[in-house]
Amino acid sequence: MSRIRFAAIALLLSAAPAAAQPPAPSATPPAALPAAPETCVEVDEVNGWSVIGDRVIELRVGANRLYRVELGASAEVAALGSRARIKLVGNSLGDLCRTSGAVVADGRRLTVVSITPVDAGDKQAAPR
């Protein structure tokens, strides 16, 4: 009978560490989250802008919406400044988006890197 007890205890002790280990990761990756919709600005609704930095402008849209637009590295070459003449070129729907549309500053076409809404409390400069 002592052999049976010894075998049972040995079996329990050898199984305990395996039970304490976390389960192995699944071979299949978790489902990817859907991408957030792209932020776009209707060009016809823009009624002011200001230069925030050498590659960033802020657009006032409608009565109280602000959007920060980061431009490609070519904006630094264009010497984007507060006196630059800016034209917004929309896509076929009239929207300025990261994937379509552009900003023309003093005749140079600048690509849009990102467009993000700006909180009223995060405002850095007053649009023109």
TrEMBL record:
InterPro entries documented for this protein: DUF6491 (IPR045500)
Top-level taxon of the source organism: Bacteria
Signal peptide feature range: 1-20
Keywords: Signal
Pfam family, one: DUF6491
Record protein name field: DUF6491 family protein
Species of provenance: Rhodocista pekingensis
